[in-house]
From TrEMBL:
The keyword Membrane applies. The keyword Transmembrane applies. Its main location: membrane. The chain crosses the membrane at residues 6-24, 117-139. It is found in: Cell membrane. Residues 27-180 form the Bulb-type lectin domain. GO terms for cellular component: plasma membrane. It is a single-pass type I membrane protein. It catalyses: L-threonyl-[protein] + ATP = O-phospho-L-threonyl-[protein] + ADP + H(+); L-seryl-[protein] + ATP = O-phospho-L-seryl-[protein] + ADP + H(+). Signal peptide: none annotated. This is non-specific serine/threonine protein kinase. Residues 189-460 form the Protein kinase domain. GO terms for molecular function: ATP binding; protein serine/threonine kinase activity.
Length: 505
């Protein structure tokens, strides 16, 4: 059974406690003219608590007290005692009633010293008692809700999907963070805390109670990332540990809500700086070169050095996050797939990713492999060098993407014209030219012609290694981009994208 909402619990508790003094077992009510005497009790509506006089003495001289106790639990389980220091000795003279001032008063009419009122139990005392019991019930409710959520995520994490058996690891600790903690950390997902948004939902900045800064990825309920993709991302990031991969701190499943909690990276994503005319100058060439090499090392870990062979399938500038030292970290593993054993490629009927970054064989045939990520890396590399998006419209009219533009300039020996003007003064033309060359090797049409990431890392780290000559690249362009001026062989895909083979000029 689902736990009751907090406001319902508080309402029920208050209703029960404020009404039980008026609901005596005999049908009478506790009113100023109808006091409660020894031998009578009043029971709460739900039968849990009782209010009245009681005695713990078995001797001939009994002492009587006023208190609240659990009605259905053996005597002695008292919640509250009013007159512990001033017991009543004569039961015939003791009464409990409301006064005209709305105080609950215990009176002993035969006690001359105390006259009429021995003890006043004011409303603040009763209110304090209510608060304590409410807090206890809320704690029970939250505990039940957490247990339910943990059951939910355990069910999700041990689900049987195409890769669930391969991914399931009973020794893996899944860090779970409650929805309440996340709501408090993000100020209820305030727009002022939003770091960005994508196809699968929004990302918010937050601060946990211990001061830890976090980034919360809140998947939209109507997004294409369902339980399978969510499960993939949690398990993969929990298993993978590398300085160039984003670190997962926890996750949460709460009803329809699915949330991932990452380490907070203050410089946000690469695209936020690279494609912002006012901020791109902060990325000088040495910094960009280190970002390129860092992404390559992270990709090498995914493809080769980790215990799992991971194909990311959505490598792009917005999925590269930058920490305080501008070190890159690959993020967003919702679309990632695991290859086992000697598996080299896989086919899918569901093509996912970002157009422009996806390889030709993946878009047209649904075939993906490590070489698909290599293609995406090549596009990213060219974007970092040029400071332009894959489909930048400000390029010369003859070119509909930076791949076409880079190929043309490289063939003509004018690669310096491809370099972002904001870094020309800080760059090494030899390094930028070499990076353009490596990028063109990565975006070749044939997957077999593209280098492995291990070779790419070597090319970047050692400038003395000679590079092979790239073949004519293939690139994708939406129909409305236009391709005037380029001789082309075109094949239409199912998603209205065109594949173009460029002829060298």
């Amino acid at each position: 059974m689902d736990p009751l909402p907090l406001h319902t619990i508080i309402w029920l508790v208050c209703w029960s406690f404020w009404l039980f003094p008026f609901c005596a077992s005999s049908g009478s009510r506790l009113l100023p003219d109808k006091p409660l005497s020894v031998g009578s009790t009043i029971t709460s509506d739900d039968g849990t608590f009782a209010l009245g006089f009681f005695s713990l003495s078995s001797s001939s001289t009994k002492h009587y007290y006023v208190g609240i106790w659990y009605k259905n639990i053996p005597e002695g389980n008292f919640v509250w005692v009013a007159n512990r220091a001033m017991p009543i000795t004569d039961p015939s003279s003791a009464t409990l009633a409301f006064t005209s001032g709305s105080n609950l008063a215990l009176s002993d009419t035969k006690d001359k010293k105390q006259k009429s009122v021995v003890l006043k139990i004011t409303l603040p005392v009763v209110s304090s008692l209510l608060i304590v019991i409410c807090a206890w019930l809320v704690w029970i409710c939250n505990l039940g809700g957490k247990q339910k959520n943990k059951k939910n995520w355990k069910k999700v994490m041990s689900g049987t999907s195409s890769t669930s058996v391969e991914l399931h690891d009973g020794n893996l600790k899944y860090p779970f963070i409650s929805f309440k903690e996340i709501v408090l950390a993000t100020n209820n997902f305030s727009n002022s805390n939003m770091l960005g948004h994508g196809g699968f939902g929004n990302v918010y900045k937050g601060t946990l109670e211990d001061g830890t800064k976090i980034a919360v990825k809140r998947l939209s309920k109507g997004s294409g990332q369902g339980v399978m993709e969510f499960r993939n991302e949690v398990i993969l990031i929990a298993k993978l540990q590398h300085q160039n991969l984003v670190r997962l701190l926890g996750f949460c499943i709460h009803g329809d809500e699915k949330l991932l909690i990452y380490e907070y990276l203050p410089n946000k994503s690469l695209d936020a700086m690279l494609f912002d005319a006012t901020r791109k100058s902060m990325l000088d060439w040495p910094m960009r070169f280190e970002i390129i090499k860092g992404v390559a090392r992270g990709l090498l870990y995914l493809h080769q050095d980790s215990r799992l062979k991971i194909i990311h399938r959505d490598l792009k500038a917005s999925n590269i996050l930058l920490d305080a030292e501008m070190s890159p970290k690959i993020s967003d593993f919702g679309m990632a797939r695991i290859f086992g054993g000697n598996q080299q490629q896989e086919n899918t009927n569901r093509v996912v990713g970002t157009y422009g970054y996806m390889s030709p064989e993946y878009v047209l045939k649904g075939v993906f492999s490590v070489k698909s990520d290599v293609y995406s890396f090549g596009v990213l590399l060219l974007e970092i060098v040029s400071g332009s998006k894959i489909s930048s419209v400000h390029l010369k009219a003859d070119f509909s993407s930076i791949i076409a533009y880079a190929w043309s300039l490289w063939k003509d020996g004018n690669t310096q014209d491809f370099v972002d003007s904001s870094i020309v003064g800080s760059c090494s033309l030899n390094e930028t030219s070499r990076c353009i060359h490596i990028g063109l090797l990565c975006v070749q049409g044939s997957p077999n012609a593209r280098p492995l990431v291990s070779s790419i890392v070597s090319f970047l780290d050692n400038g003395d290694i000679s590079l092979p000559t790239p073949k004519e690249p293939m690139y994708f362009a939406e129909d409305n981009y236009g391709t005037d001026g380029a001789a082309e062989n075109t094949a239409k895909s199912a998603n209205n994208m065109s594949i173009t083979v460029l002829e060298g000029r």
